[in-house]
Predict the 3D structure of the following.
Amino acid sequence: MNTDFLQYYHRIRSKQKREALFWSLGLAVLYLGAGRVAEFSLYTVWTSIPHFFDYLAETLPNLHWQVLFANGSTKGSLAYWGYRLPIQLPLIWETIQLAFAATLFSTFAAVILAFLAAKNTHRLTSLRLAIRTLAAFFRTMPELAWAVMFVMAFGIGVIPGFLALALHTIGSLTKLFYESIETASNKPVRGLSACGATPLQIMRFGLWPQVKPVFLSYSFMRLEINFRQSTILGLVGAGGIGQELMTNIKLDRYDQVSMTLLLIIVVVSLLDYLSGELRKRVVEGKQ
């Protein structure tokens, strides 16, 4: 008995090793082939990466301990480094508002579309396929591409950024939401159907209590993503702190590049922490 088991075990292990070696070699060939087609060169990366650190070194502020807390007209002071804070702080607040507004609008729209796109909510196959196709189109186009098109249509400002974030978020959340609805338990649905409940009542009392925590969790996660994306959209003129970052880079204001990046990092960290705590309170019920 033990001998047969050992032989079976060694045979299976040998098969697993052969398959692992085969797939590893196949992936390595595909990786190298893709790099060759894309003209990716490790030598170029190795020789050019010091220039990246040189640029980072240029963005560091030239602070002096002797005048660190002097007024804004003194070079080497913190006040001199942050002389554009009266401009940058409102832009950071604008970016937060942009991300929050786009997420809130998209969440409401995605909830409605998800219930119409789920297989277990109704039998209108044509409507379900149309919504899924539309959602796939929205999320296939990256936010940056949407922003470029809307900037050309509406001009520079927050409207292109809002529309770009909203469309991509609707596409992403709709898919996540209707998949959550389809994996919900069918027992409450059958019970309500047996009692003569309408389709709307089944969605409200049979499915919504099951998927609400998942919807909230995905929405909080998307809020964090949208703030990061909104900083990138500003690079193409879609408003927010990203536009300030792009201006500083173009004008070679290296110290203000570092200040802008520092503000973005601080706000992203705070937003991650606050959304995580809020998610624990709302979704997990923690005090």
Q: What stands out?
A: The CA atoms of residues 61 and 229 lie 26 Å apart. DSSP finds eleven helices and no strands in the chain.
